[in-house]
Amino acid sequence: MRDYESELTAALRLLEIEPLKGLDFGESWRMDPPESYRRCRERGVALTRIFVSREELVSGEAFRAYPTGAALQYQAQSPEDAFAVARSLPAG
Q1: 30-46 per-residue burial string, b: 16 or more CB within 10 A, e: under 16
Q2: What pTM was estimated for this model as a whole?
Q3: Whole-number Cα distances in Å, 90 to 3, 13, 33, 56, 59
Q4: Which of 1, 16, 83, 88 is least buried, going by the fewest C-beta atoms within 10 A?
């Protein structure tokens, strides 16, 4: 099993690459999404594949936590679930 701190440190070291414009977060649950987002935002690097729950999307919590420069991902249980979540997203 890998060490959580080592993985996070290794991933965030990618931010040292000067021309980096985007970072695919992949298994975001294994990292520290708020800290990673903060560091990426400071550098102007987009962060993709931040996994969020249905509740985080519907309540708007995910959009408050990651207002810009992030691509959120939700694993819908079915196409109907996906449509229901999309229809219930907060305006804005």
Answers
A1: ebebeebbebbbeeebe
A2: 0.73
A3: 37, 34, 22, 11, 7
A4: 1
